[in-house]
Amino acid sequence: MQLRPGMSAIVTGGASGIGRALVLALAREGIFITIIDFADEKGREVASLVEKEASKLHTGLELPAAMFIKCDVTDSNELAAAFDKHVAIYGGLDICITCAGIGSPVSFYEDRTDGSKSWRRTIAINLVAVIDSTRLAIQAMQEAKKPGVIINVGSASGLFPLYNDPIYSGSKGGVVIFTRSLALYRRQGIRINVLCPEFVQTEMASKVDPKIINLTGGFMPMEMVVKGAFELIQNESKAGSCLWISNKRGYEYWPTPGEEEKYRRHPKNLKRNSSILTPLNIQVPHSFEKIVVHTLSHDFRSATSVVQASLKLPLQPDYVLLKIIYAGVNASDVNFSSGRYFSGSNKDSVSVLPFDAGFEAVGVIAAIGNSVKHLKVGTPAAIMTFGSYAEFTVVHARHILSVERPDPEVVAMLTSGLTASIALEKAAQIDTGKTVLVTAAAGGTGQFAVQLAKLAGNKVIATCGGKDKAELLKDLGVDRAIDYKAENIKTVLKEEFPKGVDIVYESVGGEMFDLCLNALATYGRLVVIGMISQYQGEHGWKPRNYTGLCEKLLARSQTVAGFFLIQYSNLWQEHLNKLMDLHYSGKLKVAVDPKQFLGVHSVANAVDYLHSGKSIGKVVVCIDPNFSHQAAKL
Fold first, then answer.
1. Which of 531, 552, 570 finishes a domain?
2. What is the CA radius of gyration of the chain?
3. 11, 199, 512, 634: most buried by Cβ count inside 10 Å?
4. Distance between CA atoms of residues 583 and 592, nearest Å
């Protein structure tokens, strides 16, 4: 979220310490602020400072630059009234920062009272009031139907124990885990993060033993905390994140991706057939069938043939034999069969003939080399390497992707799902509150793009050809499905979205690319992930001229970005894990086209079917029907 004058913020505990510093920093950005605090005199003083700051920036403001509300944050009624007053005066809430916090005046084990004025009150202010404030802020943002940011101020003591004050440490630890558990509110355009600084020179920190503070490197500058808060406000990729700030390490998100991966568990879908989760006794044959490209052509059928290949054991030390169960069909299969993905001239491409076809598959590990220690025979795996249109394939162990089950839905998550997930994050730089257009949205990758854009909290428009495809897209949560067979896409975009679209996920090319470029809003980003309309034909792929493209982009600060999945292989497993988590937890639907293609000999039919424009969802070939326990489904 970019800070703009006229936005409004609530800061609890804003009369002193970190809260005061953040109030003044936001005021310098022209933000209207409500300070909620129990300290009357200090609260009014800070509000007065904000008014003075505002007078330097603006003259004749109709609204108060700052408003102080005396409030006990542990009183739910008082707190709710304060939030209501802010919304009534400023018309909404853009930012909420919960800074109210105290230490424990008495050790909880020495407390002979009921704790209501000591450790229980510490928990009430540091944790319960944070939960209550977060709840009220979410409600205010939801009612306004606008994106918002909530920052809960935790502490490094919530990440690592503060031995002389376990109640404070425990309450701040609760704030950390509570906030990290709210990451999915990003889908509604609300990002909630937690800020965990080490010791800052405040009135509360002055009561801490100096020896403890010295162990951490001494007091850190307040400017570091302010900078960290602004990072969480402005970085649209952060939701449910914990920013740890320290003198020794600077700014660091906690836990690190490596630490988080240690505890990642992929939820099981208990309704699914679990028979293949147990290791299998796989018979390795002496030979197997595979598809090879023997002639360069965009006509996949004429360019390929099924051949018999020998299979010998043992494998080379670092290699793995995968028994393929399902293989995915892609629009770019015809580019591969034409040799377009080999660098150099056509003569160079001819020199590598024949070569194996197919990009992606899931199956079961049938054998491993003696140096492979992290994989086991009989376990499910996926690959995204050449040679996937085969009954078996041998690949280097580094190419094996870990999956829970070798199902057709997982095949869809490979080239199609990963393209959508990584392209939206890296090339489109997707955030919340945007208008996103996805072309060919009922296809293999489009179905993922529309859902991931919705999960990120955006309005999604999708194009498709046919009533059935439009119905699928509505079921996937699309806000506006445009069936080009029933209505004119250009007219719909011009009339219903006159300001343009912020992000385009484009895979069609040709005239559709031109249409999308013309519909792009100021600052918009158009990501090209393919151009299926130009792949086939008598002469194959013909480059198009885009006269005046530079001038058009320059005039409206727009971006056109290309995306090729192979260049992001370092992110494949990470994003595949995310897609599987979303799918198995019921948050991501995967559409697999119901038309069945069985065996290696059916691959050419499947490629033709994909390019016919009749497919809905991902087209998949079942290489070994003996493992097909269930019909393809949505």
1. 570
2. 29
3. 11
4. 13
pLDDT tens-digit profile of 237-296?
889 999 999 888 888 888 876 666 556 554 444 344 333 343 455 778 899 999 999 999
The structure tokens listed for 500 are 């343009």
Q: What is the DSSP letter of 315?
A: P
Helix axes 511-518, 489-496, angle to 10 degrees: 10
> What CA–CA distance (Å, rounded) separates 541 from 528?
15
Dist. CA 374–CA 402, nearest whole Å = 11
Let me know whether 154 and 258 are in one domain. Answer: yes
Residue with tokens 């079942």: 622
The single-letter code of the amino acid at 170 is G
Q: Are 233 and 149 in contact (CB under 8 A)?
A: yes
- How far is the C-alpha of 428 from the C-alpha of 423, rounded, in Å? 6
CA angle 470-187-524, nearest 5°?
70
Cα 276 to Cα 284: distance, rounded to the nearest angstrom: 17
Alpha-carbon distances, residue 556 vs 102, 133, 519, 521 (angstroms): 50, 40, 12, 8
**CB 379 within 8 Å of CB 397:** no
At which residue do the structure tokens 């290696």 appear? 600
User: What does the pLDDT read at residue 111?
Assistant: 75
Picking from 137, 131, 94, 115, the residue whose alpha carbon sits closest to that of residue 1 is 94
- Domain final residue pick, 549, 570, 591: 570
Q: How far apart are CA 228 and CA 235, in angstroms?
A: 10
Q: Are 157 and 142 in contact (CB under 8 A)?
A: no
Both 482 and 426 in one domain: the answer is yes
How do strand 242-246 and strand 190-197 relate by DSSP bridges? Answer: parallel
pLDDT at 629: 46
Strand 287-293 and strand 304-310: the pairing is antiparallel
What CATH number does the domain containing 512 carry?
Answer: 3.40.50.720
Same-domain pairing of 115 and 232: yes
In this predicted model, what pLDDT tens digit does every residue of 535-559 receive, in sequence order?
Answer: 655 545 566 777 788 998 999 999 9
Q: Are residues 233 and 163 in the same domain?
A: yes
Amino acid identity for residue 489 in this structure: I
CATH classification at residue 366: 3.90.180.10
Cis peptide before 105 (omega within 30 of 0): no
Task: Indicate the number of domains in the chain.
Answer: 3
Q: What length is written for the chain?
A: 634
Helix (H) or strand (E) holding 302: helix 300-303
How far CA 111 is from CA of 57, 86, 106, 165, in Å, comes to: 50, 38, 7, 13
411 within 8 A of 590, measured Cβ to Cβ: no
CA 358 – CA 348 distance, rounded (Å): 20
* Residue ranges making up the domain that contains 65: 8-262
